[in-house]
Amino acid sequence: MIGRLRNEFHKLYSQFAKSDSYQAIKRVRLVRNAKINFGKILWKFAPYRYPLHGDVISIQLFKEIVEEFDIDTIVETGTFRGFTTELLAKMFPKIKIYTCEINGLNYLKAKKNLAKYKNVHLFKGTSPTFLADLLDNKKISNKTLFYLDAHWLDEWPLEEEIKIISTRLKNAIVVIDDFKVPGNNNFAFDKYGSKECALPMIIGNISSKNTYDLLFPSYGDEIFDINVSHPPLVGYVALFQNLNKNYTHFCNRVFVKKFYKKANIMKKRLT
Ligand SMILES: C[S@@+](CC[C@H](N)C(=O)[O-])C[C@H]1O[C@@H](n2cnc3c(N)ncnc32)[C@H](O)[C@@H]1O
User: Fold this and answer.
1) How far apart are CA 213 and CA 117, in angstroms?
2) What residues are paired with 100 via a beta bridge?
3) Residue 237 — left, alpha, or beta (φ > 0 → left; ψ -120 to 50 → alpha)?
4) Euclidean distance between CA atoms 234 and 58, whole angstroms
5) Which of 62, 203, 234, 253 falls 20 to 30 Å from 176 in CA-CA distance?
6) What is the C-alpha separation between 166 and 212, in angstroms, rounded?
């Protein structure tokens, strides 16, 4: 019954959305702003309803990385209810996805939400142990993309996660969510007390034997369809460990040139 009503509503709404009067209304600045703000309020009450923060550019970045680096495994830390996991599972049905969640309720909800995806392997527990187990059991190939998103309130396993990846793997590609984009205020980032999810956290935890090339997002709200409510932009970084030549090749992609800024960390020089 509710489903039928919802369908009817969507049908009526899409007819209205195509009408001339709607096209005129949506050009009014006030209406546009109200829609954008509605997305921001929704975000406050239902965070992570939007996989990868509803950011079409970061979603495309995943696709570009998978294609360029022939990725066969994705490892996510911090499943929550499985919203991003589901997006990835649908986008890359042939790729194995390992994901882990520490919270019992989230784990159970994610288990239900992800049950139909045969390429998803969900674990319960803390992410550093999960990463170490995957490495011990040789589940991580050298074509793995890491998506580190297990930061939540006081829980902050990011430093441990980085240490494991940095010391136990030669090459790696890592996307860290909720990350501070230096010199760019368009992107929100996580901050707990005085601790920011930002470069110093990485620099303090990587091996000085490695080199790190980075990509930071460099765009603004214009990437969203102004007629659709959307959450605020959230920062992230893509980190390429000991992949200098492949990184240089990747940076020549039109998409990367258009939406990203290059940076690198040479720990020996910095410390
Ligand atoms: C930001 S949310 C993840 C959102 C999810 N990746 C998505 O995009 O839909 C962070 C999640 O990490 C979980 N978490 C926090 N600390 C963790 C840890 N040490 N190991 C695994 N999961 C953890 C939290 O319970 C929470 O569900």
Assistant:
1) 33
2) 77, 123
3) beta
4) 10
5) 253
6) 10
Digit-coded pLDDT (tens) for 179-235:
999 999 999 999 887 889 999 999 989 988 899 999 999 999 888 776 666 778 999
Cα 109 to middle of ligand 1, angstroms? 13
Domain boundaries, the chain: 2-270
Q: Rounded to whole angstroms, what are the CA distances from 44 to 17, 62, 72, 203?
A: 26, 25, 34, 31
CA-nearest residue, atom 18 of ligand 1? 126
The response to whether residue 160 sits with its C-beta less than 6 Å from ligand 1 reads: no
Q: What pTM, to 2 d.p., does this model score? A: 0.84
Ligand 1 atom having least distance to the Cα of 156: 16
Alpha carbon nearest to ligand 1 atom 17, residue: 150
Measured by CA distance, the residue closest to atom 7 of ligand 1 is: 84
CB atoms within 10 A of CB 234: 23
Domain at 2-270, CATH from 3.40.50.150, 3.40.50.2000, 3.40.190.170, 2.30.170.40? 3.40.50.150
Q: What is the DSSP letter of 19?
A: S
